[in-house]
From TrEMBL:
Entry-linked Pfam families: TetR_C_35, TetR_N
Record PROSITE patterns: HTH_TETR_2
Coiled coil: none
Keywords carried by this UniProt record: DNA-binding, Transcription, Transcription regulation
InterPro entries on file: AlkX_C (IPR040611), Homeodomain-like_sf (IPR009057), HTH-type_TetR-like_transc_reg (IPR050109), HTH_TetR (IPR001647)
HTH tetR-type domain sequence ranges: 1-59
One annotated GO molecular function: DNA-binding transcription factor activity
Protein name: TetR/AcrR family transcriptional regulator
Portion annotated as DNA-binding: 22-41
């Protein structure tokens, strides 16, 4: 039932933007009652948080997989993770629905929620990337790793919201910058 509600919420957000998602229509599409939706998620914001968490988990799994494909080349692994993230964000209808209004000057409510309460997206990415980078650079100071990860996460999100159009060059430049900040010598 939870997955049906989240799938319906995603469909409606893609179709109408988050501000156009109505609980009655959501419940009908998910084939559950409104009280069931309220019981499971609490309120509309609870549904939004659960939807963001679900999408975030998908992105984090893809990033981890991209990093794992290049175990012997940190720069290539980071570039692959950024490139995958940017390509997935561009292809993902929910992400497109969230950022499209921003590019036109009006933010979607779901994007506002994400930027004012960035967990789990930012914290999940920080943990995943911070752990990976610390394992790759055990000699690097922890504060340099944290700073490098912060730059990577924020710049990647910036490229999602306002793409540069440079494709692979952006991913490689971000990877190089992150390794420089972390003090990577290899």
């Amino acid at each position: 039932m939870r997955e049906r509600v989240l799938a319906a919420a995603r469909e409606l957000a893609v179709e109408h933007g988050w501000q156009g998602v109505r609980l009655g229509e959501l419940a009908a599409r998910a084939e559950v009652s409104r009280p069931t939706v309220y019981k499971e998620f609490g309120d509309r914001a609870g549904i939004g948080k659960a939807l963001i968490r679900r999408e975030s988990d998908h992105f984090l799994a893809g990033i981890a997989e991209a990093l794992d494909r290049r175990p012997d080349d940190m720069r290539a692994a980071l570039a692959a993770a950024v490139d995958w993230t940017l390509a997935e964000a561009e292809a993902n209808p929910l992400v497109r629905a969230m950022v499209r209004p921003t590019r036109g000057g009006r933010a979607d409510d779901l994007l506002v929620f994400l930027t004012t309460q960035p967990d789990p997206v930012f914290s999940g990415a920080r943990v995943l990337l911070g752990g990976w980078l610390a394992r790759q650079l055990p000699e690097a100071p922890a504060d340099a790793v944290r700073e490098a990860v912060e730059v990577l996460v924020r710049l990647t999100v910036s490229h999602i919201v306002l793409p540069s159009g440079n494709g692979d060059r952006s991913a490689d430049r971000l990877a190089a910058a992150v390794l420089h900040i972390a003090g990577a010598s290899r």
